[in-house]
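Comment thread on ticket #2218

A.B. wrote:
> Attaching the input chain for the structure job we discussed in standup.
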Amino acid sequence: MDRKQEYDTLMQELRQTPPALEGTLDRALDRRRARRRKLRPLRSLAAAAAVFVLLVNVSIPFAQACTHIPVLGWLAQAVCFSHSLSSAVEHDWVQKVEQTQRDNGYTLTLEDLIVDQKQIHLFYTLDWEDPACEYAMVLVDGDRLSPRPTVLSDSVEGPQDAGHIVLDYREGQVPDRLDLVLTVRPNGDGSPAARFRFQVALDPSLTAVGQVRPVEQWVELDGQQIYVDCLEIYPTHARLLLRDHPDNTARLVSLLCHLEDETGRRYEREGGLSSFSDPDTGFLTELRLSSPYFQQPERLTLCITGAAWQDPGEAEVTVDLTAGTAAGLPEGVRLIQVDQEPDRTVLYFQSSAPSVLLPQRFSWTCRSPEGEWHVTEGGSGTDQDTGLETEDLHLIGYPWDQVTLTLNWTRFSPLDVSLPIPKAEQKGSF
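C.D. wrote:
> Ran it. Output below, let me know if you need it in another format.
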């Protein structure tokens, strides 16, 4: 078997979850919450890394496939659950960097880049000497970069672990050179413990222009009119651009959808930077999907299976923490428990809506009876007994007996809409 065949075998293994793994990640996350460690918002990339570790331990074929491809090394772990990135690796869309710096007991190595015109994926490894540091966040000073990107950082769970940072350029395109200032925050808190600066010239052969497929059609979704502007296709991702109608009575917050080509192959939504909304209205303006860039499909169809909406005047929920009751909850959502702990109050909700790539139901901010705003913590998952979506909110050091929560979305509509995507306007070569 040659290296290409070995890679294809690996990708097939990655797309199949062994039966023994079903529900393992959710149970592990439940156990992690039960240990009363300080909670952090769950991140899709960290979850993917956790699943990778479980797969290597549960699935013998998966582990064997990885060991047979040393050229990919740890990068296979980082990209294995992203169709777009794994396809980019398969087509040698990787720039090696391998720059190492040390500061204050931390060693950071910028390993590889995967880039196109609109995104830069930074892959790094981090090592440290401090035994009190359980995990670390590596943060990018985005203010130093021009144009300024949206930044998504993954946490590193232990010394010599690998991390992933995404720089997404909604306006403009990636620069010719990166002047990166990176800081390390141990355990995600406090002042930076280390600071690094890397200067990297981007390989112009990898910053491909990609394709634009104009759609320019209105589509009716649950009585609302949504304008599908175009589909932009790049090596690392695809972007669906949307626009609102002024007469709509509800605001589109999230869309469950996928692309499908003439062979039946699907290009799904992926985690991470999966969507963007208008900062003033909250309307969903950009949706990110797996990229068909390297597959070169003749035909693509946008298949819409559901939508999450925000109805005006229904965005707030008032919870009586003493009585354990909530007023203003949407249909299908219920408060199942309120736990009063010494340093926090924990609210547990249950929902009948699907959990796949919908935004968290509740905002990360809440309001006290005196009008003060506070930041919450928490996470979401799936109840293994009922299959229902669960969400917990943690009010840290909150002394009041009442709290007002803000809903990110109020209702979900199942849909079955198909929209053909016209052929591409070629802006670059494959």
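A.B. wrote:
> Thanks. Noting for the ticket: The longest helix spans residues 44-58.
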